[in-house]
């Protein structure tokens, strides 16, 4: 029997031993549900919709950018028409997401127009 002190093994070796002992042989990888493919036109459309709907946050380097945390939460929520990571979606599934975001853009623009009209009426 080859005995080795636990103090002399690496973290990677320790994790491997624990996984073998617990039967969990697959490493836990946190998936990035909203990861975009910069060369995919559908993914570009989603980013454009997020910006058009003003679903943005401030970034020190790039100014206003799409709110990725909000985007991730949407994909995992009951409001999303497809609950799976963006990169694992088929073109048809992505088109369902785009259609949902198109609705959000229209809704936000209508509400903005109504708000401006009400503001004009109340102050004018």
What would you note in describing this structure?
By secondary structure, the chain is mainly alpha-helical. It has helices at 11-22, 41-52, 68-76, 91-123; strands spanning 56-59, 63-66. Strands 1-2 form a two-stranded antiparallel sheet. α2 (41-52) runs parallel beside α4.
Strand content: 5-15%
The count of DSSP E runs of length 2 or more, i.e. the number of strands, is: 2
Structural class category: mainly alpha
Query: Biggest β-sheet: count, sense, barrel?
Result: 2 strands, antiparallel
In terms of topology, how is this protein built?
Elements: H1 11-22, H2 41-52, E1 56-59, E2 63-66, H3 68-76, H4 91-123
Antiparallel strand pairs: 1-2
Helix pairs in contact: 2-4
Record keyword descriptors for this entry:
single chain; 124 residues; mainly alpha; two-stranded antiparallel sheet; 4 helices; 2 strands; 6% strand; elongated
Q: How would you concisely characterize the structure shown here?
A:
The chain has about 120 residues and is mainly α. The chain has helices at about 10-20, 40-50, 70-75, 90-124; strands spanning about 55-60, 65. A hairpin with a 3-residue loop joins strand 1 and strand 2 (about 65).
